[in-house]
Amino acid sequence: MFQESRNFKNSTYTQLARIGKAISSPKRLEILDILTQGPKTVESIAREAEMSVANTSQHLQTLLESKFVEYQKQGIYSYYKLADKTVVNFILSLQLLAEKRIAEIQKLREAMYSSKDNMEPIPMHQLMDRIKKENITLIDVRPKEEYELMHIPGANSIPIEELEQHLASLPINQEIVAYCRGRYCLLSVDAVELLRSHGFKAVRLEESVQDWFSLNGND
After folding, report:
1. Residues designated as active site
2. Which residues contact 76 (CB under 8 A, 6 or more apart)?
3. Which of 25, 56, 89 is the last residue in one of the domains?
4. 140 with 179: CB under 8 angstroms?
């Protein structure tokens, strides 16, 4: 009986260790973070992660084997996506755990923002209150296809590379909140800097669309 119990535990933890293998690579973690925004081709992932297509494919194969991702062929392209909502929640929880337990992450973030002028993000709960009061303009500076897949209700899609040409359409007398892909994405920082340089009052939201819906209990 005891040997049977031990064999069961050994086998179970061996399978659980596959999760550890999948997330043991910094680049695989980045790929998973990229895929929280929605399905993407190997080529698109490779560009965003600044890797070769061959290297990206190898990492995706490891993630496939551990059931983190799935893929679907559309013509000549393979589109990869996270397997389900539990994977998204796992990635978000992993990031929060790391920030609480690993001091170096906070130091890296402080070093990044120390050269920026007052880049403190607006708290999520405050954003929710202000959206209800309709006294802010919320902009999503991610690529349009990511916005179309999922976005915070009430947000306007203005990809970062198009922001400057849309300045005239933004209200100068209302605070603008910019958001992008989450706490490790700097597109919203670039957006705030551009807006402020043109006289707008602007702040960034640090959390992602996934954080928003997780907090609001929306699948």
Report:
1. 180
2. none
3. 89
4. yes
